[in-house]
Design a protein that fits this description.
By secondary structure, this protein is an alpha/beta fold. It is 37% helix and 18% strand. Strand 4, helix 3 and strand 5 form a beta-alpha-beta unit. It is globular. The two termini are 28 Å apart.
Length: 465
């Protein structure tokens, strides 16, 4: 298609999808591991920074204990297994992933578990992980492959807390619009593996983690609740999260009791920065939302769009984020655009549940964008996509949504009231009715969300009166 012509809605949607998929491809976990782990004889070598090839960690370890968990666990484990000589790999290598991403691996046990709310299979996997890591000896390496979703996939409740009570506490936070940082602060203080707990178990062995980040800003203590790194947060902080959401009184009694005992120093804190636990640990960040956003910018440019990074850390309520994006686009059009523009973003919005419908933050943002575009009179051909790089948005089978200026028309034609659907948090049903669900299937990776807004000029936009 020549971008000098007004595009069809279909061609614009195809472009948006191609740009999104370029972002997902940049977070390919198999390639990410291959780009930073090398071997020569008995020696393993890790790049510590993908942008600086001189920073390396090398070691002659006698055995490597391989543990992978997260949505990208299988792909990461497969890559590591292909690189590490078979005679160095310890018996009992393990990969724990969400059910959708389970694949068979030679000589690696793969366990499927639930996400975002943990289940019994995840608990059993966590117990197995802990047992395997505890076997590691001095002069051996525990190689931990961490990706998004890892926090929910290996739940190991601390103290007397049951899995059901831990799930109830997590559920309260998810429904209250808590940020990923707030949720993970709590998880770290309800778990034996999170918040540096796994590093503590690995002693006296060395440990190295290859981390695929699903967290904005790539705070390693937040990704999968930081099982291999120091945790600066405290029991006091965890209690404050619930109190800030006004649901401390709804927290299960044993969870409240555990957090209170921790606050009083009766339960050990998570290991803090500078703790000797981390003396022989290292890590490499192998993929992130920032890397994927960079790839979407390049893909859009290659397709002939004028590119703008709208927001590298998109967050806040999905509806409000959508409205701000519409306002930004309107200002852009008001100043006159002469060629197609791609506004690109990456991040992770939140949704405070008020209704009982189905949908995730990306679907909610797409529906809210379509409504805000109509309300504020966003003119001309536009296409807006918001999707999770893991291929799953909330508790649905869609990755997100992709809307255009005719989306609401299609919904109403199908007998759907889009505003009522948004108020009931039922974006899935609404977008399904207009055939605007973004369906990629499980991608095997997870680096948060990507947004693509394509605006094509009309003759009046090129020469505004």
């Amino acid at each position: 298609m020549s971008h000098s012509e007004i595009p069809t809605a279909l061609s614009s949607r195809e472009d948006a999808l191609r740009i999104f998929k370029a972002g997902v491809a940049a977070a390919d976990p198999y390639q990410a591991v291959k780009s930073c782990l090398f071997t020569e004889g008995q020696q393993l070598e890790f790049l510590l920074d993908l942008n600086d090839l001189t920073q390396k960690r090398t070691g002659h370890w006698s055995k490597v204990h391989l543990i992978a968990f997260g949505k990208a666990a299988c792909a990461m484990a497969k890559a590591a297994q292909e690189i590490i000589p078979a005679h160095l790999l310890a018996v009992g290598s393990l990969a724990v992933t969400n059910y959708e991403n389970v694949t068979t691996l030679d000589a690696i046990e793969v366990i499927g578990a639930a996400h975002p709310l943990p289940d019994e299979a995840g608990l059993n996997a966590a117990l197995k992980c802990a047992a395997l890591i505890s076997l590691a000896q001095a002069n051996e390496l525990v190689l931990v492959l961490v990706s998004g979703g890892g926090s929910a996939l290996i739940p190991y409740p601390a103290g007397a807390i049951s899995l059901a009570e831990k799930i109830a506490a997590t559920d309260l936070l998810l429904a209250s619009g808590a940020t990923i940082n707030q949720i993970n602060c709590v998880r770290k203080h309800l778990s034996l593996l999170k918040g540096g707990g796994l590093a503590r178990l690995a002693i006296p062995a060395d440990l190295h983690a290859l981390i695929l980040s699903d967290v904005l800003g790539d705070d390693l203590s937040t990704i999968a609740s930081g099982p291999t790194v120091a945790d600066p947060s405290t029991y006091n902080d965890a209690i404050a999260v619930f109190k800030s959401k006004n649901n401390w009184d709804k927290v299960p009694a044993k969870v409240r009791q555990h957090l209170e005992q921790g606050r009083l120093g009766k339960v050990p804190e998570t290991p803090k920065p500078g703790d000797p636990v981390f003396k022989n640990t290292g890590h490499t960040l192998v993929g992130s939302n920032a890397i994927s956003v960079k790839a979407t910018l390049k893909a859009a440019q290659d397709l002939g769009y004028q590119i703008r990074l709208y927001d590298a850390h998109l967050c806040g309520e999905a509806r409000q984020a959508a409205e701000k994006c519409v306002s930004y686009a309107q200002n852009l059009i008001a100043n006159g655009i002469e060629k197609p523009v791609a506004l690109l973003a990456g991040g992770e919005t939140t949704v405070t549940l008020k209704g009982n419908g189905r949908g995730g933050r990306n679907q909610e943002m797409v529906l809210a964008f379509a409504l805000a575009a109509e309300q504020h009179g966003l003119t001309g051909p536009w296409t807006f996509l918001s999707g999770g790089t893991d291929g799953r948005d909330g508790p649905t089978d869609a990755a997100g949504g992709i809307a255009d200026q005719d989306t609401l028309k299609r919904m109403r034609h199908a007998g759907i009231d889009p505003l009522a659907m948004l108020d009931n948090n039922d974006s899935y049903t609404a977008l399904k009715s207009s055939q605007d669900l973004l369906d990629t299937g499980a991608t095997g990776t997870n680096v948060a969300d990507l947004q693509v807004l394509l605006i094509h000029p009309t003759l009046t936009q090129i020469h505004p009166s």
